[in-house]
Amino acid sequence: MFSQKKTTYTYAIKGLDSLKLDVYTPRKIKKKERLPAILWMHAGSFSSGKRDSSDEVKLMKYVSRKGYIGISMSYRLLRKGTETGFGCDCPKADKLETFKQATIDYLDAAKFIFNHNHQLQIDLTKVIAGGSSAGAEGILNAVYLKPFFIDDLAKYTNIKFAGVLAFSGALVNAEYITKTNAIPTVLFHGSDDTAVPYGSAPHHYCSPESPGYLLLDGSHTISKKLDDLGVSYYFNKVLGGGHELHQIPFDQLDIILQFFEKTVFDSETIQTKRTIIKN
């Protein structure tokens, strides 16, 4: 389990974008073995970032050493090269469309791995949706807001995630999280994040008069919803922390994977809030 092989697949071609997956598999996997998987969506404000950046590669190698199939995906960077970026000058309608298309890209990547699970040797009952910053927004919307963003839900009926891993993420409306769709969720967020709201607040804290005014529900609101529903979650909040909490916390990955082992693999119910005060 201490070395892995990487195989790259094209999961979709959309316009000029050839969207790919890097699949990291433990070399010593047995022929008929099926392993849990993490499908990862990178950060970058929907304008930058790569599936094979150094931190993404490090994460994928780490989880594959722990007995997972690590999958890092590319997706359409729809705000790249735009005049308004993804801040307060970006119109609300454009933000929602960006979220929608990221949701679609993520679900298309998931559909590819679900359809090729035998080849990839993935246990479909143990697929974790993971992402950071923009990627965390993408995966949270894909897991919890499919009815909001997806017109043809039947296309993705076989896609069922077992857990969520989101660093500095938010979704459009936490009321879409229900007892029937809620799954074990890990959240990391700083209370003073000025890009992605920690609680329920405007994206980038834009003023109501700005084109980019869009209310989002961040990790604090999501954790409260999961708490009320009695669903497992692990919320690592840093009081005074900013958007740097979107960085992958390699020193805490063991704790995160142990949470999934207990809640996803062993069906335990665990609700944990860990509060840190930033120095």
Automatic annotation (TrEMBL):
Pfam families according to UniProt: BD-FAE (PF20434)
Keywords: Hydrolase
Sequence ranges assigned to domain BD-FAE-like in this UniProt record: 21-137
Transmembrane segments: none
Cross-referenced InterPro entries: AB_hydrolase_fold (IPR029058), BD-FAE-like_dom (IPR049492), GDXG_lipolytic_enzyme (IPR050300)
Protein name (database record): BD-FAE-like domain-containing protein
Organism: Flaviramulus aquimarinus
